């Protein structure tokens, strides 16, 4: 955390070095920016969870949530029946009516699965993806992503105005925060660590961990042989090799 704070502060110092100093001293604007950086780097886990819960409500309002009577919702409920509470984290699930092949998790236990993922992946493949997303939460990746999103959005101003606590923020602030979290790109090591978590997760619940291999093969087909669906993600072939070694 100290390294993160120093890096953010250093970046802000560089960015304001030409216009933010007067006679060698930081002006008010620069000082405010550094204070914002400090708040972002030290955002508490409880506040991050509170903001994630609020952002999830806003995301649900912005997306078409499939009803309980939907075959997709019924299928997802069946798939996750054994792990509604996983590794001390209370999970809540919903399906978004979108053809995107996607899923995401937030630090408060929110997990959203897109219809396109359920159309494309088998039961155990969906479970592996969910286990991977839970891994991002339990390994602290989601909290780090929240701090990054918080540092680069107007949300921190809203929190600061409420005495430094997560409060009821505006719809636009929450919407921006939710989008930033959904689109967060994790590092190669974070992706590998979450794959490792997913393999253990599958074994723990008696699911077939080899589903991780078929997930990666499908990713390879979808990305047209480029090796990675996102530039910051390790190549699917590399992740497949990593999972194979774990098995």
Characterize the structure shown.
InterPro entries: Mito/Outer_Membr_Metalloprot, Peptidase_M48. Keywords: Hydrolase, Metal-binding, Metalloprotease, Protease, Signal, Zinc. By secondary structure, the protein is mainly alpha-helical. The protein folds into two domains: 1-42; 43-246, no CATH class. Helix content is 60%, strand content 9%. It has twelve helices and seven strands. A three-stranded mixed β-sheet has the order 5-7-6, with helices on both faces. Strands 1-2 form a two-stranded antiparallel sheet. A hairpin with a 4-residue loop joins β6 and β7 (110-114).
Question: What's the SSE blueprint?
Answer:
Blueprint: H1 2-15, E1 21-22, E2 25-26, H2 28-41, H3 45-62, H4 71-79, E3 85-86, E4 89-90, E5 92-96, E6 103-105, E7 110-114, H5 115-120, H6 123-138, H7 141-151, H8 155-161, H9 171-182, H10 188-204, H11 211-222, H12 236-246
Parallel strand pairs: 5-7
Antiparallel strand pairs: 1-2, 3-4, 6-7
Helix pairs in contact: 1-2, 2-7, 3-9, 6-10, 6-11, 10-12, 11-12
């Amino acid at each position: 955390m100290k390294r993160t704070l120093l890096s953010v502060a250093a970046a802000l110092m560089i960015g304001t070095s030409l216009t933010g100093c007067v006679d060698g001293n930081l002006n008010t604007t620069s000082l405010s920016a550094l204070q914002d950086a400090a708040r972002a780097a030290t955002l508490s886990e409880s506040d991050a969870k509170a903001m994630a819960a609020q952002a999830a409500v806003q995301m649900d309002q912005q997306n078409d949530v499939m009803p309980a009577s939907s075959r997709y919702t019924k299928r997802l409920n069946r798939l996750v029946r054994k792990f509604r509470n996983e590794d001390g984290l209370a999970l809540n699930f919903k399906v978004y009516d979108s053809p995107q092949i996607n899923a995401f998790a937030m630090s408060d236990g929110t997990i959203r699965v897109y219809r396109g993922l359920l159309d494309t992946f088998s039961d155990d493949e969906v479970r592996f993806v969910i286990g991977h997303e839970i891994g991002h939460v339990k390994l602290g990746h989601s909290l780090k992503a929240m701090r990054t999103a918080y540092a680069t959005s107007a949300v921190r101003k809203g929190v600061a105005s409420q005495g430094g606590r997560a409060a009821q923020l505006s719809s636009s602030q929450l919407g921006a925060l939710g989008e930033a979290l959904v689109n967060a790109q994790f590092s190669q090591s974070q992706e590998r660590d979450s794959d490792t978590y997913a393999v253990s997760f599958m074994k723990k619940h008696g699911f077939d961990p080899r589903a991780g291999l078929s997930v990666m093969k499908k990713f390879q087909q979808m990305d047209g042989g480029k090796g990675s669906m996102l530039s910051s993600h390790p190549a699917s072939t590399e992740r497949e090799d990593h999972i194979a070694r774990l098995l």
